[in-house]
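> forwarded from #structure-qc
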């Protein structure tokens, strides 16, 4: 049966709907709030006793393995994108009825502890329960951090003409997840070695961008950072542009995509630009910043590529392929969800 057009699909709320809801249902203002909620913003920030505290919440809903590592990384990434250092975390763990064993609980707690320690985070609370209607664990993290040595990087302060860059490669998180969730199917057509290589991307280069952000902020030329999570790089470009009231122009041929990502996306008929991309970092920097960014990353082993430029809002967000410009798609439903439900 065709989908009910009145029912929203899995994934993020459509961007225009989310922006409208945020605007329509704002709560009373508070003078301690430095950065509040807005479409395209990674996190919020408040002043507490003279200290800037950055606050972020994000769930993990796709992963059935390594969920604890994912929930720590995606929340820490958004703290880093605002120039912050992650410090304190709470996690809500909703565990499926009928399949949750004591060993699963033990593994989740152990993995969560290890992931927090690796990021310098203290787990300070949360909630756990066995929940009806779930087929996999759902983890929801709330992370608090403080501004780092370069201060708070406020969202929404990029300008037309600023250049867009991306570190590492896009689709890293989605590639690793697809290799884990659909490993047997993909191994039949693509080979076990490629699937194993794709699955290993979770650990190397990994899905944390904290190191990327710290290094790049030291350059003094960064105007915005954004973690391309659900909806992939394409949606992240829309979000980083919208946060500053701008448009963007992207060059498709300049976007770094690993062979594993290309092969899996081609096999599943999905677009790598709409695939979960934690591990890559989307960067806006002042014009002519390529040398400064490269110098900042020298010695880290982190590659960076210039992929486009921010423009006036009137131009919208576009992507150029083989010299032809077209509207840049926005994936409110991540391509991962489409692949897993096909």
């Amino acid at each position: 049966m065709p989908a009910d057009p009145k029912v929203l699909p899995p994934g993020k709320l459509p961007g225009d709907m989310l922006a409208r809801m945020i605007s329509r249902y704002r709560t009373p203002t508070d003078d301690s709030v430095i950065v509040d909620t807005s479409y395209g913003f990674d996190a919020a920030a408040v002043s507490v006793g003279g200290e800037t505290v950055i606050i972020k919440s994000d769930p993990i809903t796709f992963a059935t393995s390594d969920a604890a590592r994912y929930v720590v990384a995606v929340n820490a990434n958004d703290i880093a994108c605002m120039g912050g250092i992650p410090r304190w975390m709470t996690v809500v763990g909703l565990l499926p009825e009928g399949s949750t064993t004591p060993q699963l609980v033990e593994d989740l707690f152990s993995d969560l502890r290890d992931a927090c320690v690796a990021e310098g985070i203290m787990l300070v609370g949360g909630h756990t329960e066995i929940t009806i209607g779930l087929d996999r664990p759902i983890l929801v993290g709330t992370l608090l951090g403080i501004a780092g040595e370069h201060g708070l990087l406020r969202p929404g302060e990029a300008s037309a003409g600023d250049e867009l860059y991306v570190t590492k490669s896009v689709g890293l998180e989605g590639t690793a997840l697809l290799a884990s969730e659909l490993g047997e199917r993909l191994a039949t057509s693509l080979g076990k070695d490629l699937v194993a290589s794709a699955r290993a991307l979770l650990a190397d280069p990994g899905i944390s961008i904290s190191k990327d952000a710290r290094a790049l902020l030291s350059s003094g030329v960064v105007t915005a950072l954004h973690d391309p999570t659900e909806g992939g790089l394409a949606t992240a470009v829309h979000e980083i542009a919208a946060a500053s009231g701008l448009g963007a122009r992207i060059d498709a041929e300049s976007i770094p995509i690993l062979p594993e990502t290309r092969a899996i996306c081609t096999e599943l008929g999905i677009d790598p630009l709409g695939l979960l991309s934690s591990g890559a970092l989307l960067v806006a920097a002042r014009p002519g910043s390529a040398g400064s960014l490269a110098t900042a990353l020298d010695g880290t082993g982190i590659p960076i590529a210039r992929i486009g430029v921010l423009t006036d809002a009137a131009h919208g967000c576009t992507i150029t392929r083989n010299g032809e410009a077209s509207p840049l798609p926005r994936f409110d439903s991540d391509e991962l969800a489409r692949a897993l439900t096909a």
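QC bot note: The longest helix spans residues 102-119. The mean pLDDT is 94.
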